[in-house]
Design goal:
Blueprint (H helix, E strand, L loop, with lengths): L3 E6 L4 E7 L1 E6 L2 E5 L6 E14 L2 E15 L2 E5 L3 E3 L5 H16 L7 H18 L2
Parallel strand pairs: 1-7
Antiparallel strand pairs: 1-2, 3-4, 3-5, 5-6, 6-7, 6-8
Helix pairs in contact: 1-2
Length: about 130
Amino acid sequence: MEGLRLDIVTPDKVVLNAEVDYVGAEGVDGQFGLLPQHAPMLTALKVGDLYYRQGSETHWVFVSGGFAQISDNKVTILAESAELASSIDVERAKAAKARAEQRLADPKAELDIHRAELALARAIARIRVAGR
């Protein structure tokens, strides 16, 4: 059976180009999985993790929002940012998590709550993906 072509790109770089057997991710409407011959689809992605399988191996990627386009056995992820699990700096992610939690906990802080919550979600997702 023919596999899927998975391309993950950000405004700065190409994160991944690979032939895969399966892709799983979380869209804004819930989790979805993609096998070869999937119907064409376009969906927005949540901040979180994406995984793909190559044979018996599963690989994880942090994705910070964006879109997934599926067509002709090709999955294109256009993400604001994305990192392979092996590339994530866990200490940096933990520091970002602590900063975001501190900002959200300070009742006197004048801040953009939505921005702080997104920073926290990104940090938590990076830590989770790095631990897989």
